[in-house]
TrEMBL record:
MF (Gene Ontology): serotonin-gated monoatomic cation channel activity
Subunit composition and interactions: Forms homopentameric as well as heteropentameric serotonin-activated cation-selective channel complexes with HTR3A. The homomeric complex is not functional. Heteropentameric complexes display properties which resemble that of neuronal serotonin-activated channels in vivo.
Protein name: 5-hydroxytryptamine receptor 3B
Coiled coil ranges: none
UniProt keyword terms in alphabetical order: Cell membrane, Disulfide bond, Glycoprotein, Ion channel, Ion transport, Ligand-gated ion channel, Membrane, Postsynaptic cell membrane, Receptor, Signal, Synapse, Transmembrane, Transmembrane helix, Transport
Annotated organism of origin: Balaenoptera physalus (Fin whale)
Family to which the UniProt record says this protein belongs: Belongs to the ligand-gated ion channel (TC 1.A.9) family. 5-hydroxytryptamine receptor (TC 1.A.9.2) subfamily. HTR3B sub-subfamily.
Residues making up the signal peptide according to the UniProt record: none
Superkingdom of the source species: Eukaryota
Length: 455
């Protein structure tokens, strides 16, 4: 009873029970009853395959058994998005997914001998890679570090990576904001001639041209097509295989139409309304000045929206300049008209005062002709013939002065009427020119918008 109680107490003690289990496992392993097989990583088929492939591999040597046979590199490009279009510096910033595939005759194996492994990943730095570059590169290539490539049992290597590249492009902004740009990405080997490294398309040209699945359509630009061509570049250093992808993109013009064209057209229509004010109205000058100042402020605030280019002037810039010129011309015409009317009124008052004041000579001042006539209460014949001949001559002289003043005033009125008629005709001509220019530009821009939006 005492021995059984001691054994029962021993089994209930956790520390004693754990010690008993360890002793039992060691005894079983020593006698071969229990065997735990933990394979070492070096004994795996993948490890043996990688070691066999890279043990005697030389990445400095082009991977062909027959050196006269060229290594064909298959290229493919997916345009992901257009990040920036710098018309002033003639640069295009895009995000693309780049793929290249080639055969390495030194990296093939029999999959049945290696646990049916048909594809493995190897470090890119451990294998030979073609020296393919993009000729239009103008900045440092930015791409995530992807240090591995896939290799299948037949020796085909697949290398894919996203690239954020800045390339040179001949950008023409004449039709802004309805412009279409065509930028090229040219791939070729920097060192190997076509006898050593040849290039080919990974997909058919039709698939490359119309494939827009990877493109993000939430930017300012939309992708129209990516055409591709193959040619041989001949130079003094030899003939080089070359593949060119032409990326055709089109700008979405709606935001520029709303922010630039429509406000500008509205301001010009407001200035057109000022032509219905009388040409002699002084408030017309203030109104046109306000419109000109408002248009100037609008242009200054929106100057950053129009791309700056040293190659060509955008059509919309010409439109803004013509509108500004018409505003200045209209205001200048109104100022000249007011100045002319002011000078005429001052001249008329001067002649009126001069003629009504009378002349001064050595005989003394003469009376105002109107005052003299006002003082005559009876006809001369009724004054019992007492009027002297000198008085008659003086009256006659005053009448001549009045007649001369009236003739001068009539001539000034006719001259003023002629100037007013000329200015009114000029005002109508300017108004018609406004309508023609605005109509022409509006129809042209709308036609281009409809034409290019539907193409």
């Amino acid at each position: 009873m005492g021995r059984g109680y001691l054994i029962y107490s021993f089994l209930l003690d956790p520390a004693c029970l754990q010690q008993l289990i360890k002793i039992t496992i060691k005894t079983a392993e020593s006698r071969g009853i229990l065997a735990i097989d933990t394979p070492h990583p070096r004994s795996s088929a993948l490890h043996h395959l990688t070691k066999q492939l890279l043990q005697k591999y030389r990445k400095e040597v082009r991977p062909v058994h027959n050196w006269t046979q060229a290594t064909t590199v298959y290229l493919d490009v997916f345009v992901r998005s257009v990040l920036d279009v710098d018309a002033q510096n003639q640069k295009l910033k895009t995000s693309v997914w780049y793929r290249e595939v080639w055969d390495d005759e030194f990296l093939s194996w029999n999959s049945s001998m290696f646990d049916e492994i048909r594809e493995i990943s190897l470090p890119l730095s451990a294998v030979w890679a073609p020296d393919i570059i993009i000729n239009e590169f103008v900045d440092i290539e930015r791409s995530p570090d992807l240090p591995y490539v896939y290799v299948n049992s037949s020796g085909t290597i697949k290398h894919s990576k996203p690239i954020q590249l800045v390339s040179a492009c001949s950008l023409d902004t004449y039709a802004f904001p309805f412009d279409i740009q065509n930028c090229s990405l040219t791939f070729n080997s920097i060192l190997h001639t076509v006898e050593d490294v040849d290039l080919a398309f990974l997909r058919s040209r039709e698939d490359i041209t119309h494939d827009q699945k990877a493109f993000l359509n939430d930017s300012e630009w939309e992708l129209l097509s990516v055409s591709s061509t193959y040619n041989i570049l001949q130079s003094s250093a030899g003939n080089f295989a070359q593949i060119q992808f032409n990326v055709v993109i089109r700008r979405r013009p709606l935001v520029y139409v709303v922010n630039l064209l429509i406000p500008s057209i509205f301001l010009m229509l407001v200035d057109l309304g000022s032509f219905y004010l009388p040409p002699t109205c002084h408030a017309r000058v203030l109104f046109k000045s306000s419109v000109l100042v408002g248009y100037t402020v609008f242009r200054v605030n929106m100057s950053g929206e129009v791309p700056e280019s040293t190659v060509s002037t955008p059509l919309i810039g010409v439109f803004f300049t013509v509108c500004m010129a018409f505003l200045v011309l209209s205001l200048s015409k109104s100022i000249l008209l007011v100045k002319f009317l002011h000078d005429e009124q001052c001249s008329r008052r001067h002649w009126t005062l001069l003629c009504l004041r009378g002349d001064t000579d050595e005989e003394g001042p003469r009376m105002d002709p109107w005052a003299q006539l006002a003082g005559v209460t009876e006809p001369p014949i009724c004054q019992e013939h007492q009027t002297q001949p000198g008085t008659l001559r003086e009256v006659w002289s005053q009448l001549q002065s009045i007649s001369s003043y009236l003739q001068t005033q009539d001539q000034a009125d006719r001259q003023e009427a002629g100037w007013l008629a000329l200015l009114e005709r000029f005002d109508r001509l300017l108004f018609q020119s406004y309508l023609v220019v605005l109509g022409f530009y509006t129809i042209t821009l709308c036609s281009l918008w409809v034409l290019w939006s539907g193409s």
